[in-house]
């Protein structure tokens, strides 16, 4: 009968909007009069379609009227307390699945209608009641709809903060109302919801629903207006919205359904991938929920929530896992930490996570003080672990950290050690000796950067906005520098390009592996870093020597020490380890900080005795390489074969002896080309924006 009426309605001519709206609402209430089987799911009825039509009519009505004007359909919804009735039916979940439909209707109504609805008592009262229903049952099938509904309410409160007054409920008044009206809860109430049907025709189902609605109204006299809320005692207020949100944080199923930005999975994939995948996704869903909650919260509340996550999760659970000695345990916990670092986006939670990992120290680091923060010390040591897998995973962790928008990461790991520039010799010579091969013309593989197509036609709009932060040694002079300042760029770039001797180079024999391939990537990455670092209080130029404490002993810092040590063993380490070490160093080299640039990318700095820079470390590696290449027969053909195999240009065949060294030589050559590209891009950015 019900479906037949709906079919006939579809064939009928269109009705005025209000008649149409009333028809759909009466069709829903008519279902409860005629249907005796209340076990059939709501999806087997036309209730979802009628609710959707009602939403469409309300949206159309608002679109056709002047802004802020309430139409007859909306007046009907408010006057007949339709939301109250829907809440009651949703609470009873009759027919099964009705609660999901009601939550969805509320969410879409609040989201689609532009005029303010929550100030209406017949809107905010049922909305508040529906808020109380959310989170009552963990892992409920309505979890997805509950979170979407609560997020919509939160968005409305954020848009108009005064509306929060409607969601403060006084427990004392509620208890008094329950005592006074307990015996009369089911009596006729003048504010009872109007279903649009003759009350005498209502069967027991609708009658009980109306009685329940009246009971809810009788127990909530303090909800009528914001003014009634302000008369309550502060400590007796009940924040139902917050309570429901917090309850849902304990529901892994509902969170994984709607919040987690992970790939969709099924049980078969779950079993095939690895044991515990579902639990992992549930955890990451919870973390993502906390992260989003902290991001949207008021600043003080966000700080408190983030601190609680640090103490109750990171310190209590993660730290013992990261400090253990089991290699499998270390690898698993570090992999999870990697995922956490990549996922966290809220400023407050990111800061607490960083403080947990690295500590809050920003003063100069000393060799004796590297164990001051045990977890930081352990993580850095893991970058040079006996297990290559642990080393790679931890190096990847630090690479992700270096890309997060947090100044403290760089200050704590690197910059605090370079502040006084005491890596340079106390007394600077008036003139520095230039390399012999640079005095007698350009080497055969030197590149002409002035005509590089990537930078020759850059418009001012496309140039980087980092004006005067770069400074190089030796200082420009009229004798060696052209007016455009690019001769010095040639010297520095070619210093890196010429580090690896010709007999150890193989890229020139393979197409598409030249130095220019790194320029575009370096330009893009440097532009991104400049965007991140622009708001930080970083030096625009190196600290003047007269203000530096050059007599204090220089310590490169625990982090750079491990990286340099690893770089010094590049010829004896696995290929994947070398790729990760050089990747972290290139990320550091890209940063637009004067001291970091000087220390990592200036080949001409006059190092203090006992100090080393990235360039000096590579020079030592090259010296070792020259001694070892002469001991390997057919070194050049083997080197080319290994390069082609790494590029997939040559199938795997017979094993090649000294393959670790050969792969190390290839990584070294590519890394030098990458550093040259970074140096050029940074110098070009500086000169192109200078007056």
Description:
The chain has about 700 residues and is an all-alpha fold. Helix content is about 60%, strand content about 0%. It has helices at about 1-10, 15-35, 45-65, 70-80, 80-90, 100-110, 120-135, 145-160, 170-180, 205-220, 225-230, 240-250, 250-260, 265-275, 275-295, 300-325, 325-345, 345-360, 375-380, 390-400, 405-420, 435-440, 455, 485-495, 515-535, 560-570, 575-590, 595-600, 615-630, 635-645, 660-690, and strands spanning about 170, 235-240. A two-stranded antiparallel ribbon has the order 1-2. The protein starts with a helix and ends with a helix.
Distance between the termini: 82 Å
If strands are numbered along the chain, what order do they take across the biggest sheet?
A: 1-2
Number of strands: 2
Q: What structural class do the secondary elements suggest?
A: mainly alpha
Features:
single chain, 691 residues, mainly alpha, two-stranded antiparallel ribbon, 2 strands, 59% helix, disordered N terminus
Nutshell version of this structure?
By secondary structure, the chain is mostly helical. The chain has helices at 2-11, 17-34, 47-64, 72-79, 82-92, 98-112, 121-133, 143-159, 171-181, 204-218, 226-230, 240-248, 252-258, 267-273, 277-296, 299-323, 327-343, 347-358, 374-382, 388-402, 407-418, 436-439, 453-456, 486-497, 517-533, 558-568, 575-590, 594-601, 614-629, 635-646, 659-689; strands spanning 168-170, 237-239.
């Amino acid at each position: 009968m019900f479906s037949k009426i709906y079919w006939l309605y579809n064939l009928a001519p269109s009705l005025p909007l209000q008649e149409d709206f009333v028809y759909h609402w009466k069709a829903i209430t008519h279902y409860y009069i005629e249907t005796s089987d209340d076990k059939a799911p709501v999806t087997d009825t036309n209730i979802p379609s009628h609710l959707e039509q009602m939403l469409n009519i309300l949206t159309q009505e608002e679109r056709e009227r002047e802004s802020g004007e309430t139409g007859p359909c909306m007046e009907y919804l408010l006057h007949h307390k339709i939301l109250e009735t829907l809440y009651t039916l949703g609470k009873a979940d009759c027919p099964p699945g009705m609660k999901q439909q009601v939550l969805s209707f509320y969410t879409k109504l609040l989201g689609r209608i532009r005029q303010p609805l929550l100030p209406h008592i017949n809107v905010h009262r049922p909305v508040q009641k529906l808020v109380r229903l959310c989170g009552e049952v963990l892992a409920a099938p309505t979890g997805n709809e509950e979170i979407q509904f609560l997020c919509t309410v939160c968005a409305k409160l954020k848009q108009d903060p005064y509306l929060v007054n409607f969601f403060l409920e006084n427990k004392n008044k509620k208890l008094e109302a329950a005592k006074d009206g307990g015996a009369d809860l089911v009596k006729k109430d003048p504010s009872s919801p109007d279903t649009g049907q003759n009350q005498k025709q209502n069967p027991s189902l609708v009658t009980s629903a109306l009685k329940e609605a009246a009971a809810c109204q009788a127990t909530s006299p303090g909800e009528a207006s914001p003014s009634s809320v302000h008369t309550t005692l502060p400590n007796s207020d009940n924040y139902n919205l917050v309570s429901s949100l917090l309850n849902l944080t304990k529901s892994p199923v509902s969170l994984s359904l709607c919040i987690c930005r992970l790939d969709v999975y099924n049980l078969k994939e779950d079993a095939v991938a690895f044991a515990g995948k579902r639990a992992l996704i549930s955890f990451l869903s919870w973390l993502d929920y906390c992260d989003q909650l902290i991001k949207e919260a008021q600043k003080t509340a966000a700080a408190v929530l983030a601190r609680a996550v640090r103490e109750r999760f990171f310190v209590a659970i993660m730290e013992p896992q990261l400090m253990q000695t089991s290699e499998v345990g270390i690898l698993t916990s570090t992999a999870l930490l990697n995922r956490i670092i990549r996922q966290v986006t809220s400023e407050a939670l990111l800061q607490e996570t960083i403080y947990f990992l690295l500590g809050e120290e920003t003063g100069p680091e000393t060799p004796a003080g590297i164990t001051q923060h045990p977890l930081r010390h352990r993580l850095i040591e893991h970058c040079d672990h006996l297990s290559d897998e642990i080393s790679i995973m931890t190096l990847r962790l630090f690479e992700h950290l270096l890309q997060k928008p947090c100044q403290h990461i760089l200050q704590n790991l690197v910059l605090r050690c370079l502040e006084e520039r005491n890596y340079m010799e106390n007394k600077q010579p008036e003139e520095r000796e230039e390399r012999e091969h640079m005095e007698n013309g350009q080497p055969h593989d030197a590149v002409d950067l002035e005509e590089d197509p990537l930078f020759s036609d850059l418009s001012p709009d496309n140039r980087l906005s980092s004006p005067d932060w770069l400074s190089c040694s030796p200082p420009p002079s009229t004798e060696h520098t052209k007016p455009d300042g690019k001769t010095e760029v040639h010297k520095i770039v070619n210093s890196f390009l010429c580090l690896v001797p010709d007999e150890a180079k193989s890229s020139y024999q393979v197409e598409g592996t030249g130095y220019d391939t790194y320029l575009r990537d370096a330009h893009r990455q440097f532009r991104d870093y400049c965007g991140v670092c622009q708001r930080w209080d970083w030096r625009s130029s190196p600290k003047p020597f007269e203000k530096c404490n050059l007599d204090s002993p220089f310590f490169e810092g625990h982090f750079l020490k491990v990286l340099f040590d690893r770089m010094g063993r590049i010829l004896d380490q696995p290929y994947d380890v070398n790729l990760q070490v050089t990747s972290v160093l290139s990320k550091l080299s890209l940063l637009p900080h004067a001291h970091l640039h000087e220390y990592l990318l200036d080949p001409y700095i006059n190092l203090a005795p006992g100090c080393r820079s990235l360039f000096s470390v590579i020079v030592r590696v090259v010296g070792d390489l020259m001694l070892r290449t002469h001991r390997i027969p057919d070194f050049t053909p083997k080197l080319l074969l290994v390069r082609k195999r790494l590029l997939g240009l040559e199938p795997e065949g017979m094993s090649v002896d000294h393959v670790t060294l050969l792969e190390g030589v290839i990584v070294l050559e590519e890394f030098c080309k990458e550093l040259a590209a970074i140096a050029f891009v940074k110098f070009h950015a500086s000169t192109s924006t200078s007056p």
